[in-house]
Every structure is written in structure tokens, then in C-alpha cells.
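Entry type: protein chain
Record version: 2
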Amino acid sequence: MLELDDVVAARDRVAETVRVTPLEYSHTFSARTGAEIHLKLENFQRTGAFKIRGATNKIARLTDAEREAGVVTASAGNHAQGVALAGTRAGVDSTIVMPEYAPISKVNATRSYGAEVVLHGVDYAAAAERAHEIEREEGRTYLHAFDDPDVMAGQGTIGLEIVEQCPDVDTVVVPIGGGGLIAGVATAVTAKTDARVVGVQAEGASSVAESLRKGGRVEIDAVDTIADGIATRSVGELPFEVIRERVDEVVTVPDPEIANAVTSLLERTKAVVEGAGAVTLAAVAGEAFDYDDGETIVPLLSGGNIDLNVLTTVITRGLVERGHFLRIRTVLKDRPGALQELVETVAEHRTNIHAIEHDRASKDIAMNAAEVELDLETRGPDHVAELIAGLEAAGFEVEVLV
């Protein structure tokens, strides 16, 4: 079982490489929730995520022979970058196997930190299989992303920072993928304070919640979530034992609420946070667990490495969830003035048009009709309902697409 002494020792090992990240009070989210919200901004960490902590501690613990042979791992993102930078700074050669369809931005970032990148397979499982082959062929040490006590201890250094930066913390909220992060953080927090630790998973990757219900580790059949950093089918064996003993509650949040949290953080704090990092704020904002007014809560924002194409989609989903973006479809009579009538009706309801597409050739409509799609900027759910009602009252049949 991981202990506080392991985490304290890890802090000394990682101090030269790892940044102490800020913890900032949020007036906006405190006002929205009624709690005292302090955001732990691990998205400002080197490589953009917490993984550098565990990777640095693990590499520091290698024997001379292991350092000489080098390390290998598999990852689609944050772990890859953490191992790459930690290895380079320690003078240890690293090979990272990434899926062939990993975002090119993450592949380039991993290479820029000094690792050799091997692209193999369509998913993480295939990449991991190849990484283990390289481990056997070249005698390298395999660095597991979460199921390793040294990695868990390194991640736990965040917990030490939280209790020092916010001594009166009542609740620490932590994302869960494979479980290494929450295992380390919970070990530090529960040893140092009486605060509770709440874990959060995406609904589409909720292996821990199900494992706790069944009393043993469960591997789910598939994962489906925008929070790709925590999209694991099962929790690690070692982290699960720590979770069972030291984590008070594990909750899940749906993708629309995650997207809303990413968008809110970008809008209100100007912080770019990936879906896996934003699940903690989503859980607080969506009241996925009970808390009291005035309770001091620290959501851990674990990383900010979100692909720009994904960010565009997430922002759109977030705007839709908040009623600030609407895409509709309607069919007009193909006659002069019909489109103008539609646009004027939209304008009467003080709605801005972002984009408009007018199609006479669609096979799904009559020969004397035209299909129109509108992307609209709206001011909230009430405004959306008012606009749709106004369009229907003016004789337009409206289909909401997004």
C-alpha cells in the first residue's frame, strides 16, 4: 500500500523538473455553486499535464543498468509527453509507442521532448502490445502510466501542494482514469488532513464506479467520452486498492456537462483545460456529489493538452448546452422573398446568424422548395425556446439539429 513517506520522498526527486502549480480562488464558480472553489491548475505543469510528476519519480528510481538500457511505454498523449521530457532531463533514452491515429500535435510534442516515437496500431491496446515487444527485444524498462507505486507516489505530490496551498480544504475532487493520480493524491491528502477525496469519471468510461459496486476490478467493454485522458476500460490493480481505502466517493459526469465545464473555464478563467481535467469542475457544478454552502472545495484540473480540432467541437457542445448556439433546419417555398422572411423573423428575436446554407437540390424536399440550415448565436435556453416558438408562429417548421 502506498504511504505518505513514499509521496514525500517523491517530491524531493521531482523538485528540479516539476513545477509547483498555482491554486487559485474562483469568484465565478464559488458564486455559481455556493461553495468556496479553489482551482488547482495542473494544466500549467510542464508538458501541460500532471503525468510528468510520476514519470520523473519513476525514472529517478531506476537502477544504473535500467537507465543505461532506456525506457519504453505506450500512450496516446500526456503520459507520452511526461516520459519523454522526464527521460531527456535525466539522460535516459525513451521510446514511446503511440497509436497511428494519435493527434499529430501530441506526436510532435512527444518528439520535441526528445523521445523516439513509434506509431503502431489503431488504439492504445495495440500500441501497448508493441511497446512490450520492444521491452523484450531491447531490454528496456516499461513505464506503466498508472499501475506502478513510483508513478502513483509522483502524482501524489499534487496532494502535498494542495494541503499546503489550501490548509482549510474540505474536499479534493480528482479525475480518475487508470487511478494512479487519485491514489497518490488521496494518500497525501488523507494523511495530512481530515478532508474527503471525491473521484470523478466520465459516464462513458465508468470502470471504477462499477468496480466499487461489485467489490472488485471490472473491465468495461468499451469507452465513449470526449475526456480521452481518462478513457480507460479498467482501473489499475494497485490504484484500486488505494481508492477502496482512501477515496470517500466516486461519481460520474456526462459529456455535455464536461463540455460545458471546458467552455466555462475558457470563458471565465481563460484557462485551456482538456476534458479529463474539467470533469472535476463538471462534478461540482452539476452537483454530482453533495456538499454544503461555504464548503472549501479544490477541483484538480489535471491537464490542458486538448487537440484544437477537439476543442472546437467541445466548445460548440458547451455553447449548445448553455443555450448559446443553435443549429436549425427548415424548408421554404422556393419563391422570391421566402428567405428574407425567415431572416427577418430571426432578426425580430434579436438573434445573430453565424452561418446560413440554402439548398434547392436536396432529394429530401419537394421540387418547389428549398432547404435552409442556420447556425445561430443565442442568449440562453429561454431565448432558444422563444426563438423557436416565434419561428413556428410565423409558419416555419423548425427542426433543431444541434
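Comment: Residues 124-138 form the longest helix (15 residues).
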